[in-house]
Amino acid sequence: MATLAITGGQLLRPDGTISRADVLVDQDEGTILELGDDLAGTGDTNLDASNALVTPGFVNGHSHVAMTLLRGHADDKPLDAWLQEDIWPAEDELTPEDIRVGAELGLLEMIKSGTTAFADMYFEVPEIAAAVDTAGLRARLGHGVVTVAADEAAAREDAQTSIDVARELDGAADGRISTAFMPHSLTTVGEEYLDEFVPKAREIGVPIHYHANETTDEVAPIVEERGMRPLAYAAEKGMLEPEDFVAHGVHVDESEIELLAEAGTGVIHCPGSNMKLASGMAPVQRLLDAGVTVGLGTDGAASNNDLSLLDEARDAAMVGKLETGDASAVPAGAVAEFLTHGTADAIGLDTGRLEPGSAADLAVIDLETPHLTPPHDLVSHLAYAAAAADVKHTICDGQVLMRDREVQTLDERAVCDRAREHAVALVDRAAE
Ligand SMILES: [Zn+2]
Fold first, then answer.
1. Family assignment (predicted)?
2. 0.85 exceeded by the pTM?
3. Mutual angle of helices 152-169 and 191-204, in 10-degree steps
4. Per-residue pLDDT at 159
5. Annotated binding site for Zn(2+)
6. Is omega for the bond preceding 46 within 30 degrees of 0, making it cis?
7. How far apart are CA 124 and CA 132, in angstroms?
8. Is the domain covering 58-347 a CATH 2.40.50.140 domain?
C-alpha cells in the first residue's frame, strides 16, 4: 500500500469546526486511513501543511468547462443576446480537439484553485472525460441537449447521445467519472423529448441535471403556456427526484421552494454568473430554511469569468445578504458547506468530508499571507478572504494533483499555449 501524509495543518471537519490534525491517505484505495496529531514523516509521500488550512477538495456543482476558450470573448450583455449573438455562433465552430484543449485549461484552473470534483454539461463529452482522466479530478459529466430549432431527427439524435454518453462513460477513469442525462433547460428542450427520454435516463439509473428558473424570460413562457410554474412542470415530467439537481433556481416562488424541499432535488447556486448576466439573485437563505440541498457552481468561464470556487463562495455570502437585506443571511459556515459536502451531496458524489474511510480529496490553503492574517476564524477566511492563489496542494482520489503550486498531472505552460492558439482560431472562424 502506498501512503501519503499531509501534516502540520488545521483541518476543516465535517461538522464545520476546525482543529489541528494530520491526515494519512491510502493512495491505492484513494481514501483517508487515519487522522492524528503525530503522523509527520509516516507517508511514502509527505506534504507539509504547517500554517495551512486543510479542507475537503472544493466541489463545483455546475460548469461548462470547455467554455474557458470563450473567456472574455463577449461580456456585458444579458443572457439571451449573449447566447444568440456571441456564444452559440462560436460554439457552432467548436471541434472535438477544441473541446479537449478548453477542458484541459479549465481543469488546470480548477486544480490550481483547489477544486477536485465538478459537474459539467457540454458536448463532445468523451473529450472532456479523457481530459478528466489525465488531470485526475472527479466529475459528473453529461451531454447537454438542445432541441429548439432542430428538426425531429436531429433532436432525437441529440437526446439519444445524452443517454448513450451517460451509459457509456459512467464509471470511467477508474470510477472517478459518473454521468447524468442533461437536457439544457425546460424551455430549450421540447416536451415530447422529455416524455421520451426522461424514462430512458431512469432506466439506466442516472440523475438528471438541467438549467431551471435562471431568468424571468425562462419562467414566463412556461407559466403562460402551461399555467404552472417551471418546477411544477419539471415534477410532472418526472425530473424532480432526490438524485436530480438544477442549476440557478433564481426565480423560484414559495411553491417551487416547497417542491424542491419535498423532492430532495438539489439547487446549484451560481451567483457570479447570475450577477454578470444580471439574471437576478437566488433566494438562497429561503432555500436553506426550507431544507433544500444547496450547492455552488461557477457556470462556464464565459459568464463568470473564472472557475475559482473561493470567488464564488464570497459572492454567495455577499449576494445572500444583499438579497435578504439581512447581514446574518448565508453565513460563512453555510458557505463552507457549499464549497465541500453541500455541493457533493447535491450532485451525488461521495466526497467533501474529511474523516477516516472517506474519499481522499483535499485542498491545502496557505495561511502565510497578509490577507489571511490574523487567524481569528479560519471558516471566515474560507468564505470571505481566501483566493485561488492561496491553494498550495491539491489531492484527489489520494493522488497529488498539485504540490507546492506545481500541477503534476498537466503541463501548465503547454496547456495554456494550446488554449491560446485554439481560442484565437475559434473566434476567427466564428467571425467569418
Ligand atoms: Zn450553465
1. Belongs to the metallo-dependent hydrolases superfamily. MTA/SAH deaminase family.
2. yes
3. 20
4. 98
5. 62, 64, 211, 299
6. no
7. 13
8. no
